[in-house]
Amino acid sequence: xxxxxxxxxxxREAGLGLFEKWxxxxxxxxxxAGIVLGNVLPGAFAALAGIEYASVNLVxxxxxxxxxxxxxxxxDFGAVRRVGDKPKGLIITLVVNWxxxxxxxxxxxxxFFEVFFADLIAPADAQQYIAGLILLGAAPCTxxxxxxxxxxxxxxxxxxxxxxANDLIMIVAFAPIVALLLxxxxxxxxxxxxxxxxxxxxxxxxAAGAFVRSRLLVKSGGDEAAVSRFTHALKPLSxxxxxxxxxxxxxxxxxxxxxNPLLIALIAAPIVVQSYGIFAIAYAAARVWRVPHAIAAxxxxxxxxxxxxxxxAVAIGLFGLGSGAALATVVGVLVEVPVMLSxxxxxxxTRGSFPAA
Length: 357
Hints:
Blueprint: H1 11-14, H2 18-21, H3 23-40, H4 42-49, E1 52-53, E2 56-57, H5 58-74, H6 77-81, H7 88-116, H8 123-137, H9 145-151, H10 156-182, H11 191-219, H12 224-252, H13 254-259, H14 261-288, H15 293-304, H16 308-319, H17 324-349
Helix pairs in contact: 3-4, 3-12, 5-11, 5-12, 7-8, 7-10, 7-14, 7-15, 8-16, 8-17, 9-10, 9-15, 10-15, 14-15, 14-17, 15-17, 16-17
């Protein structure tokens, strides 16, 4: 699993304060606290894990909502209408997410578990882990992308359009791609999970953000600075939401992490390679195509992040709660935050290599 302690985010470049500058350290502390508390208080975390509907944990949903709400307030719907004038970032996102990412994840899963780890893992177990990784690779992220975009000063309107386009494609493409890669035709897509996640992580916070933004502009006589001051004031809430989310995710899986750390590391290896590889492909394409950094960074991060709620739900439905496939999707959850924070740091430090606007 990737370490977060050595990748502090550049506060001057990202426009973050002293606390946010060392966000990677606080996340590392939250990971450790989650593992410790999850083993010391397993009953409490089991109760929190049980507060869910359609495989979406409602406690985590509230925390993610707190994280993404400031960015939703910042969305300028006038800019949304102009996204078509700058299609490059959207094209890169869609090509990487749907024509590259699922297939590279499948290839890496086979390479690691049938070649590199062939002597360490039984063949039947290896097939389960491969299936779980395929499910992760075919499900681009919906919620946390807004957090990563905010940390790189991404264009909120453009990020919204990129996420919305991926969600629309996911509705029709997820099942066929998974069926092709798994060789399984009887795939029951958990529509409740998919639609509830879009509702909770996109539509509701977007509507609330639009309402708050309109009220701020009315009260300030159309002054955009009022919106900026409001979102800046909410930044601590967003960071606290991220840290509590990390603590809960690691607390939910604390027993698994402590019980079999080598297996977790083996499953994490291809996920980490895939994450950095997909980011490099999208980020390099954006640089070559001279996409502005506020679009290029979220563009690359969207392809790297995963819709783990959907992947976990499908893994459980196809293979069972205690299956290796389900475990692999859960490891994807654990790996994502540390890896994504390191990629946020890379994006912020390379801002000067891209056009500003």
